[in-house]
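Appendix B, Record 12. Input sequence as logged:
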Amino acid sequence: MKISQVAAQLFTLRDFCKTPEDIAQTLKKVSDIGYQAVQVSGFGPIENSEIVRLCKENNLVICSTHEPSDVVRKEPQKACDRLKELGCKYTAYPYPAGVDFFSEDSVNELIADLKKAVEVFEQNGLVLTYHNHDIEFLRMGEGTILDKIYNECPIQAELDTYWVASGGCDPERWVRKVAGRTPLIHLKDFKMTGAKEHIFCEIGYGNLDFKGIIAAAEEGGCEWFMVEQDVCPGDPFDSLKMSFDYIKANLAEG
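Logged structural output:
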């Protein structure tokens, strides 16, 4: 993994991305940390052309986005049009909003919609991925719901390492399971507290084996490694810097 493949998932900085002025300042800070790419997510109202301009101004590649769940399922062409305006190939279905994971019918409806969306993305020369949380690791049939999604739908994967661990599974094993269809991965560490709770933390400060995870992802053809931290103990810019510095020193090539 090259350091140029490491991106900041801007959902981490969502509280600092509410206005175009906020976004401009945020992108500069992200670039100053050393990131060369970003995943666009969590933005307030801003024109796509302005996002492109600000990223170019700060030497940041837009490697991927998260588009609204309902748009991906019901208006996939709208999501494709936005990606084209951003000059971006990849997006992810970000969260299974409104899906009842205790109902096989509801899960089947999700899969049917995602199949149709994948067709639209492919027709546009773009790639739709699935971003998992821990809820997809509920059992359904002979495997997990995430197994069912990937077995029955040709969608690509944007595995999230924290949520795989939270779901009781091994992130490296899952990366290998979906090898060849994982262009994106969320690097997110998993830490236990003295209260026997697990929390988000900076890369290298938790329990996940990122050397193994990244090696498996590279073998499977992963293109972008996105740092995300849903909740930070203090300034999220500090957390993104801690993760970047650890990755640069221990996990990435120059």
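The chain has one domain: 3-250.
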